[in-house]
Amino acid sequence: MFPSLAVAGRISTDPIGTLEAEVPIFAGTGSQTGTDNRWGDYSSMAIDGADGCTFWYAQEYYTVPDTSFDWSTRLASLKFSNCP
C-alpha cells in the first residue's frame, strides 16, 4: 500500500474531537525514497472566496513505486454536503 490522498473535516455541529467521514481523493501508486525531509512542500488547502464553501486542496503523490523526487501534483475541490 502506498501513501494516498484523503481529507476529513468537521462541521460546527460535530462533537468536539470528532471528524466527518474521511473522503478518498486518490489511491497512491508509488512512494518516495530519499526524501531529505521534503515531503509535503507542495501541499496546501484554501477556501474559495467566491462561495465560502468550497475547499481547494493540492497535494503531491507518486505514480511509480520507489523513486526519488519524481512526484506529480493532484488538485481537488471539496465541500460539505450541508453547504449551499
Q: Count of helical segments?
A: 0
Enumerate the strands of the largest sheet in spatial order, edge to edge or round the barrel.
3-4-5
Order of helices and strands: EEEEE
Report how far apart the termini are: 36 Å
For the secondary structure, the number of strands is 5
Kindly summarize this structure in a few lines.
With 84 residues, the chain is mostly beta strands. Helices cover 0% and strands 30% of the residues. It has no helices and five strands.
Overview of this structure, please?
It is a single chain. This protein is mainly β and 84 residues long. The chain has one domain (1-84). Helices cover 0% and strands 30% of the residues. The chain has no helices and five strands. The strands form two sheets. Strands 3-4-5 form a three-stranded antiparallel beta sheet, with no helix packed on it. The protein starts with a strand and ends in a 6-residue tail after the last strand. The model has no long low-confidence stretch (mean pLDDT 85).
